[in-house]
Amino acid sequence: MEHKTRDEIRDVVDILPSCLQTRTLSKRERLELWVEALEREGGRCLRTLFEIEYAPPTERGGVRADDSPLSVAFADQRLRAEGLTGDTVGDATAFFGISEMELHNILCFCHYGETMSADMAAARVRAVATRDAEHSSLRASRIFVGRFGAAMVAIGGLTA
Question: Looking at the domain assignment, is residue 152 inside a domain?
Fold first, then answer.
């Protein structure tokens, strides 16, 4: 990957000041952008990360591999524009809002061997995004039902 300064790329792209950006993306939207980047790679073989869970906690955030699902994310211009700063475990957990365990389940060597297809990685990321969305709606329904039940008890509509 070739890195250039803003001045070097001004003739190629429009750079908008941050004040013109409408809003930050939600966790699910960031994960979906990663899914889209991986799906564009199709069946390409990507390297997994070797035994992430055994890396010392002080070093785990810096774990990375060339041609990994994380490097695909970092190569995506939109994800970088939204704030993805690198292709390490620490960069991914911070930007995508996922835990190290979720990231481990997506792309660790112990689940897939040395390589996995980009399509498989996309499916794993989508599963995390979907599961998170389902948990959010479940939490919202529990709050509603809990408050509804409390209101019914308060007005005598339900007996405790």
Answer: no
Lowest mean pLDDT segment, chosen from 3-12, 20-29, 49-58, 87-96: 3-12
148 in a structural domain: no
Token duo for residue 159: 């007996």
27 near 42, Cβ under 8 Å? no
Number of folded domains in the chain? 1
- Dist CA 10 CA 7 (whole Å): 5
User: Which residue has tokens 């408050």?
Assistant: 147
Helices (H), the chain: 6-9, 27-40, 57-60, 69-75, 77-82, 89-96, 100-107, 109-112, 118-155
Mean pLDDT for 20-42 is: 89
Q: What's the predicted TM-score (pTM) here?
A: 0.70
Q: Percentage of the chain surpassing pLDDT 70?
A: 71
Asked if residue 116 is part of any domain, the answer here is: yes
Domain extent for 100: 8-131
pLDDT value at residue 2 = 73
Paired tokens of 72: 């695909």
